[in-house]
Amino acid sequence: MNTNIAHPPAGRQRRRHSPEFRASVIQACLQPGVSIAAVALANGLNANMVRKWIIEERKRSVPAQAHPSRPVSVPDHGSPPAPAFVPLALPAPPATSGAIQIELRRGEATVSVSWPLSAAAECAQLLRELLR
């Protein structure tokens, strides 16, 4: 059994990033409609590491006394925020006394049906039965 611990290759070292570089990456990630993964990829970074930087930055910017037990979450900037609900007053549809006109043709035979709009559900049921 080999118990040797594998060491990283001699030419490979852990990279260190300056605080200015981290701040610029974090700012780029916080722009609306920007993907954290895309910013990380464009800068040759791991997206999980960038998310960790954002969480650490938020912890530094929020005072510890304000929310000591509240977890800090990273918002998903991949989709735009949902707009607030705005109710609209729509005019009532005009009351029409029209009819549903249906014309069915099969070979030489033609059937025309005129159905009142007030009984549209019954018309739909008849059509379902006919078209089976």
Give the amount of beta strand, in percent: 5-15%
Largest sheet properties: 2 strands, antiparallel
Number of strands: 2
> Helix and strand succession?
HHHEEH
> What's the rounded overall pLDDT mean?
79
Helical run tally: 4
The largest sheet has its strands arranged as 1-2
Q: Outline, from the CA principal axes?
A: elongated
What can you see in these coordinates?
By secondary structure, the chain is an alpha+beta fold. Among the domains are: 19-61; 99-130, no CATH class. It has helices at residues 19-29, 36-42, 47-61, 120-130, and strands at 99-106, 109-116. The chain has a two-stranded antiparallel ribbon with strand order 1-2. The longest helix is centred in the middle third of the chain and has 15 residues, at 47-61. It is elongated.
Give a brief outline of the structure.
The protein is elongated. It is α+β, with helices and mostly antiparallel strands and 132 residues long. Helix 2 (36-42) packs across helix 3.
Task: Throw out a few tags for this protein.
two-stranded antiparallel ribbon, about 130 residues, 4 helices, alpha+beta, about 35% helix
Topology summary:
Layout: H1 19-29, H2 36-42, H3 47-61, E1 99-106, E2 109-116, H4 120-130
Antiparallel strand pairs: 1-2
Helix pairs in contact: 2-3
